[in-house]
Amino acid sequence: MSSAATRPAGPDDLWSVDEHLEDILQTVRPLEPIELQLLDAQGCVLVDDVTVPVSLPPFDNSSMDGYAVRVADVAGASEEFPAALEVVGDVAAGAADPVRVGPGQAARIMTGAPLPPGAEAVVPVEWTDGGLGEGPVSGMRARSLAPEGAEGHVQVYRPAEARAHVRAKGSDVRAGDLALEAGTVLGPPQLALLAAIGRGTVRVRPRPRVVVLSTGSELVQPGEELAAGQIYDSNSFALTAAARDAGAIAYRVGAVADDVETLRSTIEDQLIRADLLVTTGGVSVGAYDVVKEALAHVGDEDEAGSGVEFRKLAMQPGKPQGFGAIGPDHTPLLALPGNPVSSYVSFELFVRPAIRALLGVTDLHRPRARAVLKADAALSSPKGRRQFLRGAYTDGEVTPVGGAGSHLIAALAQADALIVVPEDTESVEPGSEIEVVLLG
After folding, report:
1. pTM, entire model
2. According to the model, what pLDDT value does residue 331 have?
3. How far apart are the C-alpha atoms of 334 and 414, rounded to whole Å?
4. In 3-48, which ranges are E strands?
5. pLDDT tier at 212 (50, 70, 90 boundaries)?
6. Long-range contacts for 284-291 (Cβ within 8 Å, ≥24 apart)?
7. How far, in Å, CA of 385 to CA of 107, rounded?
8. Of 46, 282, 413, 435, which is most buried with the most CB atoms under 10 A?
9. Phi first, then psi: what are they for 409, rounded to 5°?
């Protein structure tokens, strides 16, 4: 790996959080662009600028159900002295050859229908008698129920200015305008615009495929019975959900027992559907921490640039970390600690930016803010370690949630921020201003 190869570090040297993150981001590159159908492109990043080939709307059209009229014919109209006009036909949405409106005439028109030749404005049906001769009406009769409504006469009780209730051609966007800039993340409104201007496909960077794999013989799937010494696997659910939240297509693999060959074969099997692999557990120094051993010979280890390096970081929680590339395609792999809080904090700091980099967006990181610490006592932090504590953030204040233990899942569920205590700070007094990472 690039910076790992040049950084003089012994096995017991600590990497900083920033050094580890820099190594990841120097290695991970955006995925190659592909052409996708619109709905398949949801959540993807647009590669090229998109210009408008046809104006929106492409023709003058009515914004109301009513009657298309000439302004002079309804000038001075009132309920006492209505304007009586001959109805020459219907203009429905999608009409290709609308009727022409001449002097003293009107055409019944529907919302979205093209303004017929000769007409200058639209009067809402509520300003008319609807052709019934019984005073103002509240709506238009369906053509299927009263086809004669498109004929005869209508009385108009109010005047209309030129272009009243008319959506002008190109009032949304004009042909040649920039519709969407390269780098735009395609959500529902952006997909609607692409469809509206006639784009059926679009060139994007695809959403990265992320495989999440947890390790540990003690792990049991939720819904099954626990035996003595067993716990439920929560990490794979948390990290898979977090990967999806970051914009990835995420696949969760059931927990793998602490067996080197089983773990190695499982990882190799997953390479075919992974742009990024995330493991959790088995990266510490225990006798059963098998991830290091398994990853030493995964895939094509003879390929230059392949291999995973395991490091100790100057942070709490999350000191043990692993990062590298495995297999013939040099698929990035991040190995996270197994404690639930450690794995989640590590994901937010390292995996989420890697996913965002693969996606091709510019906002890789969670937003940060300055907040006033609201606590009953000072926060302590180990010297030389950057500590990340769970917190609840509200209106510029942050309150610690739970203790510092890396197993406290309940406290994590109540937190919406991480309190960042710098390496050179051993105590933070209540009322102090401190940095927080906002988890959204």
Report:
1. 0.83
2. 95
3. 26
4. 14-15, 34-37, 45-46
5. very high
6. 284/320, 284/337, 284/338, 285/320, 288/217, 288/258, 290/215, 290/258, 290/259, 290/260, 290/263, 291/215, 291/263, 291/322, 291/335
7. 77
8. 282
9. -70, -35
Read off the tokens for 230.
Answer: 């067993």
SS3 label, residue 37: strand
SS3 322: strand
Torsion-angle region of 138 (φ positive above 0: left; ψ -120 to 50: alpha; else: beta): alpha
Rounded mean pLDDT of 128-138? 86
In the 8-state DSSP scheme, what is residue 40? G
The alpha carbons of the chain give a radius of gyration, in whole angstroms, of: 32
Helices first, then strands: H and E counts in the chain: 10, 29
Residue 329, exposed/middle/buried by CB under 10 A (0-12, 13-18, 19+)? middle
Q: Give residue-wise pLDDT tens across range 293-324.
A: 787 666 544 454 458 899 999 999 999 999 99
Which are the contacts of 173, defined by CB distance < 8 A and separation ≥ 6? 52, 55, 56, 179, 197
Q: Are 122 and 68 in contact (CB under 8 A)?
A: yes
- Predicted local distance difference test score (pLDDT) of residue 222: 87
Two tokens at 368? Answer: 């940060």
- The pLDDT score that the predictor gives to residue 133 is 83
CB-based contacts of 335: which residues, under 8 Å, 6+ apart?
278, 279, 280, 282, 283, 291, 295, 308, 310, 321, 322, 323
Cα–Cα distance for residue pair 369/438, rounded to 1 Å = 7
CB neighbours of 234 closer than 8 A, spacing ≥ 6?
222, 340, 409
Q: How far apart, in whole angstroms, are the C-alpha atoms of residue 132 and residue 433?
A: 72
Asked whether the beta carbons of 230 and 217 are under 8 A apart, the reply is no
Determine the length of the chain.
Answer: 440
8 Å CB contact between 258 and 217: yes
Statement: residue 12 has pLDDT above 90: no
Q: Which helix (H) or strand (E) holds 195?
A: helix 188-196
Tell me how far apart the alpha carbons of residues 133 and 26 are, in angstroms, rounded to a whole number.
77
Helix H or strand E segment including 419: strand 417-421
Structure tokens at 228: 């003595």
Three-state DSSP state, 388:
strand
* 117-126 confidence digits (pLDDT tens): 999 999 999 9
Give 292 or 355, the one with higher predicted confidence: 355
| Least confident segment among 183-197, 209-223, 274-288 | 274-288
